[in-house]
Design brief:
Elements (H helix, E strand, L loop, with lengths): L3 H18 L5 H6 L5 H7 L2 H6 L4 H6 L1 H13 L3 H13 L5 H16 L11 H12 L7 H21 L1 H14 L1
Protein name: Regulator of G-protein signaling 8
Organism: Alaudala cheleensis (Asian short-toed lark)
Membrane topology: Peripheral membrane protein
């Protein structure tokens, strides 16, 4: 019947909205995506290490658990595509095969850069167009400008909020509690 499809669509929308309302910014969100078993991983994480994540954004990105905590935080803000793009670019720069370079570049472009990409990152038109041209003749540096813009956006916008987030403050108190 004609009435069935809208009702089905509304149910799907309600389910999605229900999922949105259950998103939280907590220590448990972080432990759920740790690269190792959470308890073992957290025993290895010192308060000193976790405190150093506040020294600089790059210190945070270079630490396995810092990266996991930041990813969990970005998920609560629905902006993890920025980090995923940055990581894809880091992986892309390690490509040694010329044959793989073109296909990897195209995949990254289609997933993150192209207009209406499934995980489109927020970059300006000029950067998007420059990247589009670069991907036509890919080199290891073809995403450098776009990656730099996304890094800067995360550093200025998401990173300060992460340092004030419940995920980070809970994590610090967990490591300190272990010491006492």
């Amino acid at each position: 019947t004609p009435a069935s499809p809208p009702r089905h669509r509304n149910r799907g929308m309600r389910t999605r909205l229900g999922c949105l309302s259950h998103k939280s910014d907590s220590y448990n969100d972080f432990t759920a995506i740790l690269p190792d078993k959470p308890n073992r991983a957290l025993k290895r994480l010192s308060t000193e290490e976790a405190t150093r994540w506040a020294d600089s954004f790059d210190v945070l990105l270079s630490h396995k658990y810092g990266l996991a905590a930041f990813r969990a935080f970005l998920k609560t803000e629905f902006s993890e595509e920025n980090l995923e793009f940055w990581l894809a670019c880091e992986d892309f720069k390690k490509t040694r095969s010329a044959a793989k370079l073109a296909s990897k570049a195209q995949r990254i472009f289609e997933e993150f850069i192209d207009v209406q990409a499934p995980r489109e990152v927020n970059i300006d038109f000029q950067t998007r167009e420059l990247t589009r041209r670069n991907v036509q003749e890919p080199s290891l540096s073809c995403f450098d400008q776009a990656q730099g813009k996304v890094h800067s956006l995360m550093e200025k916008d998401s990173y300060p909020r992460f340092l004030r987030s419940k995920i980070y403050t809970d994590l610090l108190s967990q490591t300190q509690r272990r010491l006492s």
